[in-house]
Design a protein that fits this description.
Low-confidence stretches of chain A: 1-22, 25-140, 528-533
Largest interface: A-B, 85 and 107 residues
Number of strands of chain B: 9
Helix content of chain A: 25-40%
Radius of gyration of chain A: 67 Å
Mean pLDDT of chain B: 82
Strand order of the largest sheet of chain B: 7-6-8-9
Strand order of the largest sheet of chain A: 10-11-12-14-13
Helix content of chain B: 40-55%
Oligomer: heterodimer
Distance between the termini of chain B: 103 Å
Strand content of chain A: 15-25%
């Protein structure tokens, strides 16, 4: 309480104005309360005491008011309540204060009679306070200091609680209450004096040096006693009995009469309206379901029963789209804590595993080996894996996937055995060597005895088929693009395409009759030649050296000739000069009349190759993407075959004239059935690289394709006379022998006219015969 | 002419599917609630066959639900409970904010709860359905039962999971239905056959979990909610199928039951263990064979269930007690452990009748002669091999043989580890002792044999060389006599192996036929062949690895011997 009051004293000067108001207020309240309480008639305190109480209360109230102004609490009604509370508190405090105040007064060792007088005076002044202002406060200040000193050691020096060293250099040590200097004792004790004193003075042990006054004080016996008692933790007062019997505030005896004689209030007999209202509100809320009565705790969770008592199959029919979740795959040996050594990762595998993205890894963990079970640690991703499974179960879209469960052997088509389809060439039997450049074209004589080959080294060689002997070599002075033997067996003639010239060459081999017939054919036309003046080409008779070599005629073209093709009768000859921009790409020459003509007026694309129909007057022209068939008699196009390939390389017509095969640079071979459709009846993709040449056999149901991958594939293609039956195509043999040079393999392929033999020429400067 | 124009995406598959967001809006649920509902009701997205059609022409990645599924969710009473709960949370917040604590109390008392019984019945119309789907439930409950009270989930959930899993294990013990066990690096796999269904579950090793931060425990908790309900009902039914009391008595439940040392109380005390005998039907021919095979199988199963009968085990304190006790009791063995380890030990380590003591330490001070000291892997391997394996390989401190997965069934062409072959030989009745000796001898013999083989080869080579030399000499003699100018090299006789020729021809035929395959079929064929080849390659790789390892081991042994 003292501290509290001193606090209030400190603040007092600052807040005098406020305090006045507060005091007035509190006084009013007080008076009012007194008035209220007056009814009770409990006069516990004397008037004198009350004054003191008043003062204390003032302090308290001022505190609370202070808080009011600081804005911590608001609302007047609240403060009213608090006031009520305060009042109660104050009453308690008053009681305490009373007791303690008395004790204080008794205990104060240095009490002066004057002091009591002052306190009395103070009390009276407080009575006056309401009337007088500042004067009172000043008076109060002085009193306060004196009163305050009761608790502390007496203040004779007014310098306050400061380090006394500050007065070290002064003769005085401070000021007394009257403002006079307190001088230091004349002679200070030094160490020796101290020691002597200690040894000699019997009172030394209870002498205390008072720093503030600079005097020594000798404690009295009572004071020493008090110090001892306090040190032992006892009460300061000797007479205080701490074990006094308790005095009960209320008696435990039940008395028959009430303590007060006051009749009970009326309201204690009447049911409370407020309560009634509250109850009815609750009842209403319960009725409306706003408040639910406390639910009976049912231990339903964890209480199980036989759920599947009456299993009825009607429920079993779930909707058919239900897909049960797949189970987690069972662990393999790798997951063991002690797997066989082959399942552990090697260093490279481990490095690979580390590098891979987690989604790419084959195993989601690294197999590890532990020598005993106690060394196995916890799996760090256990919860993760469980969680991922949960996610899969409710988030992963499910789809029914039909798994193809097929035996791969069943997928292989059942074809007739190649053995049953014999004869066909199976082995390489002869190699014709002699050329030095790649051989672009070969051709077999209609008798089947001779083979002509044209090469990039600028020579045409004629071989005997059976002995592989080179019978004749003709230097033509340029790379031979194409060579073709006249199909007429009565003559022996070759057409050779060299740069922009087509040479008609008579090798003069074989029968005398045949040779003479050839000679006749070539010389007999000389008269007719004169009729032809100008044209797209010029026919030139050769002389001298060239004639000796066998070159009889030169047909000079405007552009480079790519291909030559004879008609089956052997009188007409077609030559191809591929050119994007011109309509002059194909020329048909008549050998007997030494006449040439251009059959097409329009350019329909880059012509790749041409062919005559073996029986009817049809003409096949292959451009890049398609093959056109022209009727030469009616002079119109009859059919256009879509090859379904990017770039046609070669073409051949079956001897019946109803089937066409064409090879293309995009590795395909297409078989067309002219009666069936303009689309290929079959596309074969047997080769790995571009197809360079294709050929039908004249009499056997065979065809061959040559490709850059160095192989010749012989297929059996039965053509039935019955139109309803489609040709059956069976690959029967893959022939290999040519070496691949400069990324080129086999360049041309052709069949022997009567035997089931096939010739192929390649970039390795050889011609090979397979029988 | 022609009536109304057909609008796109108004019929067909586009109307059968609904995106997730639309479904959510239709159900008027928040995403977490929708997720819970899907988990509880077992609704999952479907991948439509033509995604673009379903997605109304867009190719944006979306998840689709079946419209029928969502319509089915509309009438679910739990949806109402979800909404109630939302209201409850709102009220509670308000009451807290107003500091009306009596209201808070009252609200908390009336917290809305829901039961999942009807959902279980709906999702699993028959008991077998429920059993088929119990794998995940068991895994999850076993995981949750190992959680500590870390606040990742409710303590009640953990306790419930613990209780249910212990009940399950006791059922498996009582029915002796455990079939396979496997010690993996993730945990211990168990497989039991319950009512004809193979049920596999995984139990983590006994360690505290390092709870990851990127796992949504709410999802796991929702699953666990469903799974505990399911497992409870399944347990009830299973216990009743064995005439056991369910739930097992609560008083001793927590400790003694979880110790797995006591047998469960039966409803009728005097129930004889009737072994279901296969009835003999008069059958003929193939059926007869089948019948015999079945009988044999059953006999084998019986012997497996009595694998450890008559054996007395003692578990040292360092071995995983629960799993071992579980397994040993599943196969009829007696098991005990130190009193201080856990409640429920039935006999002491000093018992002289103990036949096997399971230890997992390099050595032990006091050893009894009357018992084997073996490592825990022996128990697991015995169960998988269905016979008592020789204990010598598993003695204390011995390097253990590899532990193989019993779940792998090798098909033809797959790689089979040699250990498995050994076990298979043992199963067929070879005497283990001999095997052991053989093996030791084999090591030596094998080396000898190899050497011998080498010698043989050398000899053959030498013989050939000698022949050639003599031939050459003869030729030289002859040629000297004639002194030919033209060099004649000896012609080689082409040995035609008819079998090989035929094989080659066949191979060529096949190659040619493959050329004629259609594109689609060829693609499929190539794919299948690729897969086959890869399998073979992997098997070969494993075999090569193993061989290298064995060679290295042998070399080491030789070195050590020298």
């Amino acid at each position: 309480m003292a501290a509290c009051s001193s606090n209030s004293n400190m603040r007092r000067e600052e807040q005098t104005e406020e305090k006045k108001k507060a005091r007035e207020k509190s006084a009013k309240k007080r008076s009012k309360e007194e008035g209220d309480e007056g009814d009770e008639g409990e006069e516990i305190f004397s008037f004198k005491d009350k004054a003191a109480v008043d003062e204390e209360e003032d302090d308290d109230l001022s505190d609370s008011e202070d808080s009011v102004y600081s804005g911590l609490e608001d609302s007047g009604s609240d403060s009213d309540d608090e006031d009520d509370d305060d009042k109660d508190d104050n009453e308690e405090e008053e009681e305490e204060e009373d007791g303690s105040g008395n004790e204080d007064e008794e205990e104060d060792l240095k009490t002066e009679t004057q002091q009591t007088g002052q306190t009395e005076q103070k009390k009276t002044t407080t009575m006056k306070k309401k009337k007088e202002g500042k004067e009172v406060t000043e008076e109060e200040k002085v009193n306060e200091y004196e009163h305050d000193s009761s608790d502390e050691e007496d203040i004779r020096n007014t310098v306050g609680n400061i380090p006394m060293e500050w007065y070290k250099d002064f003769p005085h040590i401070g000021y007394n209450l009257d403002g006079k200097k307190i001088y230091k004792p004349i002679r200070n004790k030094d160490e020796l004096d101290e020691f002597l004193d200690k040894m000699e003075n019997p009172e030394y042990w209870k002498t205390i040096h008072d720093k503030q006054t600079g005097r020594d004080i000798v404690l009295s016996d009572e004071q020493v006693d008090l110090v001892n008692r306090l040190q032992r933790g006892q009460f300061g007062d000797v007479n205080f009995n701490e074990y006094e019997p308790t005095v009960e505030f209320f008696t435990s005896d039940v008395m028959i009469h009430p303590v007060t004689n006051r009749p009970a209030d009326k309201r204690s007999f009447i049911p409370s309206l407020i309560e009634k209202e509250k109850v009815s509100k609750m009842v209403h809320a319960i009725k409306m379901g706003w408040i639910k009565p406390r639910r009976v705790e049912d231990d339903s969770k964890g209480r199980y029963y036989d759920l599947w008592t009456g299993e009825d199959s009607s429920l079993v029919a779930k909707h058919k789209m239900h897909l049960p979740a797949p189970k987690i795959p069972l662990p393999s040996h790798q997951e063991s804590y002690n797997p066989p050594p082959e399942y552990l990762f090697t260093d490279e595998e481990r490095a690979l595993w580390d590098q891979q993205d987690p989604s790419d890894r084959k195993l989601p963990f690294v197999p590890r080996k532990f020598s005993s079970l106690r060394q196995v640690p916890a799996f760090p991703r256990f919860i993760h894996e469980r969680f991922e499974r949960c996610l899969d179960l409710y988030l992963c879209p499910r789809q029914r996937k039909m798994r193809v469960n097929v035996n791969p052997e069943d997928l292989i088509p059942k074809l007739p055995k190649p053995k049953d389809l014999q004869p066909f060439p199976t082995t390489q039997s002869l190699v014709y060597r002699g050329h030095t450049g790649l051989i672009r074209s070969i051709s077999v004589s209609p008798s089947g005895q001779w083979l002509a080959s044209g090469s990039d080294d600028g020579s045409v060689r004629i071989w005997e088929v059976c002995s592989s002997r080179c019978m004749k070599t003709v230097q033509v002075g340029g790379a031979v693009k194409s060579i073709s033997w006249n199909p007429n067996p009565a003559v022996c003639l070759l057409a050779v395409a060299v740069e922009s010239v087509v040479l008609i060459l008579s090798p003069s081999l074989g029968d005398k009759q045949v040779i003479s017939a050839t000679e006749r054919l070539l010389s007999g036309q000389q008269e007719a030649e004169t009729t032809e003046g100008e044209g797209p080409v010029s026919w030139i008779e050769t002389e001298g050296e060239e004639l000796n070599q066998g070159i009889h005629l030169k047909i000079q073209h405007a552009k480079a000739v790519q291909q030559v093709a004879w008609h089956a009768k052997g009188d007409y000859l077609a030559s191809v000069m591929p050119d994007h921009s011109s309509h002059l790409q194909v020329l048909i020459h008549q050998l007997s009349r030494r006449r040439s003509q251009n059959p097409f007026r329009k350019n329909k694309g880059l012509v790749q190759c041409v062919s005559f129909h073996p029986i009817r007057p049809y003409f096949f022209v292959a451009t890049q993407r398609c093959i056109r068939i022209y009727n030469l008699v009616k002079q119109e196009m009859t059919k256009k075959l879509q090859a379904n390939s990017k770039w046609i390389s070669s073409m051949d017509v079956h001897s019946s004239g109803d089937h066409v095969i064409c090879g293309s640079y995009d590795c395909r071979l297409g078989w067309f059935d002219l009666d069936l459709s303009t689309k290929p009846y079959k596309m074969l993709r047997h080769h790995k690289k571009a197809v360079r040449g294709v050929a039908y056999h004249r009499s056997y149901p065979l065809f061959a394709s040559a490709s850059d991958d160095g192989s010749v594939i012989i297929c059996h293609g039965t053509v039935y006379n019955d139109l309803l039956q489609n040709p059956l195509i069976v690959p029967v043999k893959v022939l290999k022998g040519h070496e691949i040079t400069h990324d080129l393999g086999v360049l041309d392929v052709t069949f022997h006219p009567t035997q089931p033999w096939v010739f192929s020429s390649g970039a390795d400067a050889t011609v090979r015969l397979f029988t | 002419m022609g009536g109304l124009q057909k609008k796109k995406f108004e019929r067909g598959s586009a109307t059968n599917y609904i995106t997730r967001n639309k479904a959510r809006k239709k159900l008027q649920l928040s995403l977490p609630d929708f997720r819970r509902l899907c988990i509880l009701k077992g609704i999952y997205p479907h991948e439509p066959k033509h995604k673009k059609k379903v997605n109304k022409g867009s190719t944006a990645p979306r998840t689709f639900y079946l419209v029928k599924d969502i319509r089915f969710l509309l009438h679910e009473p739990i949806v109402g409970k979800f909404r109630d709960y939302k209201v409850f949370v709102r009220k509670l917040k308000k009451a807290y904010a107003k500091t009306e604590y009596s209201d808070v109390e009252r609200l908390k008392d009336n917290k809305p709860t829901y039961k999942l019984d009807h959902i279980i019945k709906e999702r699993y119309p028959t008991f077998i359905d429920a059993l088929r789907d119990i794998d995940d439930a068991l895994c999850m409950c076993f995981l949750f039962s190992t959680f500590a009270r870390t606040g990742k989930c409710h303590v009640q959930t953990i306790q419930l999971c613990r209780r249910l899993t212990v009940e399950w294990m006791n059922y498996v013990i009582a029915s002796r239905s455990l079939k396979k066990v496997f010690l993996s690096i993730k945990g211990i796999y168990y497989q039991a056959e319950v009512m004809g269904q193979l049920i596999t579950w995984l139990v983590p090793y006994q360690f505290s979990h390092d709870h990851p931060t990127d796992v949504d425990y709410r999802v796991m908790a929702t699953f666990t909610e469903l799974y505990t309900t399911l497992l409870g009902f399944v347990n009830f039914r299973l216990y009743h199928s064995l005439n056991l009391v369910y739930p097992p008595k609560v008083s001793f439940f927590v400790q003694k039951l979880s110790a797995l040392s006591t047998s469960l109380a039966r409803v009728f005390s005097s129930v004889e263990d009737e072994e279901a005998q296969l009835d003999q039907f008069p059958v003929e021919g193939e059926d007869m064979e089948n019948m015999e095979a079945r009988e044999k199988e059953q006999k084998q199963q019986e012997t497996q269930t009595k694998l450890f009968e008559g054996l007395k085990f003692f578990l040292n304190r360092e071995v995983p007690r629960e799993s071992l006790a579980f397994i040993i009791r599943c196969f009829g063995g007696q098991v005990s452990w130190d009193k201080s380890v856990c409640i429920g030990s039935t006999y002491d380590a000093t018992d002289e009748t103990i036949t096997h003591q399971i230890v997992d330490r390099p050595n032990i001070d006091k050893q009894y002669i009357s018992r084997y000291y073996i490592q825990p892997q022996w128990v697991f391997d015995c169960v998988n091999a269905k016979i008592l394996l020789p204990v010598e390989d598993y003695f204390m401190g011995v390097t253990l043989p590899p532990h193989l997965s019993p779940f792998v069934e090798e098909k033809e062409g797959d790689y089979v580890p040699p250990e498995k072959l050994k076990v298979m030989a043992l199963q067929q009745g070879k005497k283990p002792e001999q095997e052991e000796e053989d093996e030791d001898e084999e090591d030596e013999e094998g080396e000898d044999e190899e050497e011998e083989d080498d010698n043989d080869d050398d000899e053959e080579d030498e013989e050939e060389e000698a022949e050639e030399k003599s031939l050459k000499k003869m030729e030289e003699q002859r040629s000297q006599g004639k002194s030919l100018q033209v060099k004649v090299t000896p012609g080689k006789v082409k040995v035609e192996n008819p079998a090989r020729l035929e094989q080659e021809q066949k191979a060529e035929e096949k190659r040619l036929a493959i050329m004629m395959m259609k594109k689609k079929e060829k693609y499929l064929y190539d794919k299948i062949m690729f897969g086959k080849k890869r399998k073979i390659r992997e098997a070969n790789k494993l075999a090569a690895k193993r061989k290298a390892y064995d060679d290295a081991e042998k070399a080491k042994k030789k070195k050590a011997r020298k």
